[in-house]
Amino acid sequence: MKKKWCWAALVLSIGVGTILWMSTMKSEERERVGSSETAQEVVLEGQAGEMKKIDLGSTMRPEDVAAEYQSIVKSIEAYAGEAMRSERDSFVELLLDEDYADCRISVDEVTTGTPFFYFTPDKETQNTAVHYPLYVGQELIGIMNMIYANEVWQCSVEGKTEQEQMLEKMQYGKQPIIFYVCGQGECGDVVMAEAKDQTWNYIEGQGEVATSDRQQQFQQYSYEEKVSYIAHNG
């Protein structure tokens, strides 16, 4: 496989698929990403203190919810979009070689969908991973994952995994869906996905699950209240 730069890869087997983690930033790109740290704080810094109930009742119109949801998507794009576009083709190539070698899919045929992240109610700063669905036409084929740590974007790609199957099940991209952490299990965060009329266990907890007061309070919000809260605190 052709590599544009020198990188180190760690292949992790997860479920029925694989995730390939890599650090792919050139030194000048690291400087460029690091210089956007202030913008990152503006986009992702949450508010300290107790969670305040958003008493919207039935006053929030569907178009208002759609606008709040789009503001979340735009914030994610502003945070990670440039880095995603610079890395996407390399990781799409890895995905096609690993999981779709017999399908004769070209990198140019793959498109990215609406990005999402896992909102954490009990964190004042949302320093979190960003996830981009990958499609060929209308078919979901994988997820590109990105996290900014130590002034470097760390990227991964996953194909045939449980999370990819869950996105297909909930028809992600055809309706506004939010993701949030509702507790911590033995293997990490427990994540819920929620649309207007349905909720899914996106990442289920293993063993005993601990839930904080703020996580419990957030779960009591309506879908509209959750969308608005994430839009203003994400």
The secondary-structure class comes to alpha+beta
Radius of gyration: 18 Å
What general form does the structure show? globular
Identify low-pLDDT runs: 1-49
Tell me the helix content. 25-40%
Total number of β-strand segments?
10
Strand content: 25-35%
Q: What series of H and E elements makes up the topology? A: EEHHHEEEEEHEEEHH
Q: Characterize the main sheet.
A: 6 strands, antiparallel
Mean pLDDT across all amino acids: 79
Strand order of the biggest β-sheet = 1-2-7-6-5-3
Q: What is the count of DSSP helices, taking H or I runs of 4+ residues? A: 6
Alpha-carbon distance between the two ends: 38 Å
Textual characterization of the structure:
It is globular and about 50 Å long. It is an alpha+beta fold. It is built from six helices and ten strands; from the N terminus they run ββαααβββββαβββαα. It has a six-stranded antiparallel beta sheet with strand order 1-2-7-6-5-3. A four-stranded mixed beta sheet has the order 4-8-9-10, with helices on both faces. A hairpin with a 4-residue loop joins strand 9 and strand 10. Helix 2 crosses helix 3 and helix 3 crosses helix 6.
Topology, element by element:
Blueprint: E1 8-14, E2 17-23, H1 27-34, H2 37-44, H3 62-99, E3 110-112, E4 118-119, E5 130-136, E6 139-149, E7 152-158, H4 162-169, E8 178-185, E9 188-194, E10 199-203, H5 213-219, H6 223-233
Parallel strand pairs: 4-8
Antiparallel strand pairs: 1-2, 2-7, 3-5, 5-6, 6-7, 8-9, 9-10
Helix pairs in contact: 2-3, 3-6
